[in-house]
Amino acid sequence: MSHLKLFSKKIILLHAALFPLAARAQLGRQITGELGDAGRESGLISTQDFTLPEIIGRIINVALTLLGIIFLVLIVYAGFKWMLARGREEEVERAQKIIESSIIGLIVIILAFAISKFVFATILGGADIR
């Protein structure tokens, strides 16, 4: 009989734990829907479909943003590696190599952004990437 009581208590606790999550998810959907409606009514959210160049531009924008974040992480990592080297030349040289490679990567990212901005603005007729 004690196993049945223990099992029923676990079921009650499970329901008590999951019910607020379900209610919270429903509330989140309701708030998101209302915010979307408000955005469409104010004109901040476009209801039109995106063209292919706009979709490609957004994908490139996200990819370049992620690469920029990776650059930042590598620079911080190399800085910590350099600080923790404590004067050991091989560790300092590795950190400097990471910084040099990261800066070269950043230059490539900036050039890729400039080229894609030029291509989209000039050749494809102004599908804007920022």
Sequence stretches where pLDDT stays below 50 over 5 or more residues: none
Q: What's the overall average pLDDT, rounded?
A: 75
Q: What distance lies between the first and last C-alpha atoms, to the nearest angstrom?
A: 67 Å
Radius of gyration: 26 Å
Q: Choose one word for the global shape.
A: flat
Sheet with the most strands, sense and barrel status:
none
The number of helices is 3
**Structural class based on helices, strands and sheet pairing:** mainly alpha
Characterization of this structure:
This protein is mainly alpha-helical. The chain has helices at residues 2-42, 52-83, 89-123. The longest helix is centred in the first third of the chain and has 41 residues, at 2-42. The radius of gyration is 26 Å and the shape is flat.
Put the structure in a nutshell.
With 130 residues, the protein is mostly helical. The protein has helices spanning 2-42, 52-83, 89-123. α2 runs antiparallel to α3.
Task: Present the secondary structure layout.
Blueprint (H helix, E strand, L loop, with lengths): L1 H41 L9 H32 L5 H35 L7
Helix pairs in contact: 2-3
Defining key terms:
130 residues; mainly alpha; 3 helices; flat
